Amino acid sequence: MLKTPLFLVSLMLVSGLVSEPALAELAASRQSELMHLLKQDCGSCHGMTLKGGLGPALLPAQLEGKPTEYLVVTILEGHANTAMPGWKTMLTADEALWIARQLKQGISQ
Amino acid sequence: MIRTALFSLLLVSLTPAHAADLRGTGDLALVIERASGSIQIIETTGNSSLGRIEGLGDLSHASAVYSRDERYAYIFGRDGGLTKVDMLTRKIVKRIMQAGNSIGGAISQDGTLVAVSNYEPGGVKIFDAATLALVADIPASYGEAKQTSKVIGLVDAPGQKFVFSLWDADEIWVADMSRPDKPAIQKFKGIGRNPYDALISPDGRYYIAGLFGEDGMALLDLWNLDAGVKRILDHYGKGEQKLPVYKMPHLEGWAMAGQYAFVPAVGHHEVLVIDTRNWSEAGRIKVHGQPIFVMARPDGRHVWVNFAIPNNDTLQVIDTQSLKIIKKLQPGKGVLHMEFEPRGEELWASVRDDDQLVVYDTESFEERVRLPANKPSGIFATVRAHKTGL
Fold first, then answer.
1. Which of A21, A83, B120, B220 fits a disulfide with B207 by CB distance 3.0 to 4.6 angstroms?
2. Nearest residue to A42 (alpha-carbon basis) of B36, B76, B246, B243
3. Which residues contact B9 (CB under 8 A, 6 or more apart)?
4. Does A85 contact B at CB distance below 8 Å?
5. What's the pLDDT band for A3 if we cut at 50, 70, 90?
6. Spatial contact of B271 and B287, defined as CB atoms under 8 Å apart
7. Mean pLDDT over residues B244-273, rounded?
8. What tens digit of pLDDT does each residue of A70-85 get?
9. What's the rounded Cα separation, in Å, for the pair B305 and B336?
10. DSSP states along B205-263
């Protein structure tokens, strides 16, 4: 598979040559926004280091046994009768998938 | 001469402050720098930063209370750290790890006890304010299985009491600490689903917990504990679709003007107005987003509101006589907290994503100054030392 360099991808995105869902990877700038969102805004309930708060800890150990797809649905739709809101107004499915993968592998602090 | 002046300026800026410099603390405040585990000490007379204290652990959620002499701050960190800081020497006096995950704290009426509310293990721990030695441990256990609940909405109350709520157990507890070795605890059960935060009126009489799991708030009259908990505003969201809550509102202090109190609605882009004479709803004010902090200027004439993501770049000001929004400000991205100066002529706002503190004139709404800060969140002024519940 030919891998497009990231800067080229962002360039193509900006110029509208490719649409986002078709991308294998998100633009680097969007990735950094998502990481910021994950630490700061998911962090307001789950803790900035994801060790938990009002919401449960989201470290790889806690998420073991929870499929990535389950995390994606949770991120997008939220959990009824809990404080977890759905983020689909702010995130695409690809972006939720990217976040879910970050959670599974663990983020650097 | 200029050289001498420059030299002494250099000396001043290089020499750490000593208590012997004879400075008061009444115009000081601290700013939580949430990502770096540090705090900044600022002064609100000339609006400048005096310095930074590092090494306070995980401050991603943090708050502070002050000793009654306004010299020491107690900072409650996310990681269960409790740090006592000297506002004059700008040094850590004492730091302990008292739990795995904590949410906030309070200082007793007489200033001798500091209480911390914890998520993990769920409960309240009470410490000697001078030494931070453990005085009492109150696990928030409930139900048959004796599981423990996350504790929120911890405040001090007159009569050497602490009042707090149990998120998982739907309870409010009143702990009388008159005998520190023997806390006398009164429990109120079934107060409403998932209390998320609470506040106490400035006179220390009414404790009000906001409910996340259902509409309305739980009111406890501390002068008439036998009357139990009363539900208020339980109809405010009925029949309306709740919007997603991307951040829990905070109930801090009591935004009150005349007989009206102002609180954030949960899941609605509204500020609710309560008539405190009969605890009925006196109005709803449509605002820019999910309100997080709803704070009254000390004179009560205006109420300032900030919002959850994705509307957290905006502040709105409500006039408490007309109940109309009279000003919209956009300080920057990630406006997390506000603090009025003691008499309210200026307001400080923390702008997380822009790494800035912004000071506004609260009469003209003009921006006075911007200071750099590292991912600032809570701003806590020493004037809180003499306010019940703060």
1. B220
2. B246
3. none
4. yes
5. very low
6. yes
7. 90
8. 999 999 999 988 999 9
9. 10
10. -EEEEEESSSSSEEEEETT-GGG-EEEESTTTTTTSPPPP-SS-----S-EEETTEEEE
Secondary element (H or E) of residue A32: helix A28-36
pLDDT at B63: 96
Interface probe for A, chosen from B34, B56, B60 (most Cβ of A below 10 Å), is: B60
Around A38, how many Cα atoms within 13 Å sit in the side-chain half-sphere?
27
Quick one: pLDDT at residue A16? 42
Share of chain B above pLDDT 70, in %: 94
Per-residue pLDDT band at B236 (split at 50, 70, 90): confident
- Give the ipTM: 0.81
A44: which 2 tokens?
Answer: 């307001």
Q: Which of A44, A48, A83 is the closest to B35 by Cβ?
A: A48
End-to-end CA distance of chain A: 32
pTM of structure: 0.89
Q: How far apart are CA B227 and CA B186, in angstroms?
A: 13
> Distance from CA of residue B198 to its chain's centroid?
10
Report residue B169 CA to chain centroid gap: 23
| CA distance, residue A57 to nearest chain B CA (Å) | 11
